[in-house]
Amino acid sequence: MRRLLMIYLVMINVLSFFIMGLDKVKAKKQRYRISENTLLFIALIGGSLGSYLAMYCFHHKTKHIKFYMGIPLILFIQILIYCFYFYTKF
């Protein structure tokens, strides 16, 4: 089960990084954008690390409070949950 969770986390974080980059490209070309709710949802379901890295790699959404405060908060909470899950025996 833990192995599947690790695979999921890698995949969702790669996806979130890619989607943030895609949204940045769309923003530069003034095309239809990916909604902020979608970007935050992907971070919430496990893609917070990918979203956080993409924000600073692409300089995207770094001035929006719900991103520069929300993504690190989600990441922090998820790290606590993962540490509890991976380092406790039950």
- Point out poorly predicted stretches: none
- Compute the number of helices: 4
The H/E string reads: HHHH
Shape: elongated
What Rg is obtained from the alpha carbons, in whole angstroms?
14 Å
Give the proportion of residues in helices: over 70%
What kind of sheet is the major sheet? Answer: none
Report the structural category: mainly alpha
Would you count the extended β strands for me?
0
Question: Approximately what portion of the residues adopt beta-strand conformation?
Answer: under 5%
Mean pLDDT reading: 93
End-to-end C-alpha gap: 13 Å
Number of domains in the coordinates?
1
Describe this structure in words.
- The chain has 90 residues and is mainly α.
- It has one domain (2-87).
- The chain is 79% helix and 0% strand.
- The chain has four helices and no strands.
- The longest helix is centred in the first third of the chain and has 27 residues, at 2-28.
- The two termini are 13 Å apart.
- The mean pLDDT is 93.
Task: Using brief descriptors, characterize the structure shown.
79% helix, mainly alpha, 90 residues
Please summarize what this structure is.
Pfam families: DUF1294. This protein has 90 residues and is mainly alpha-helical.
Layout of strands and helices, then pairs:
Layout: H1 2-28, H2 36-57, H3 65-68, H4 70-87
Helix pairs in contact: 1-2, 2-4
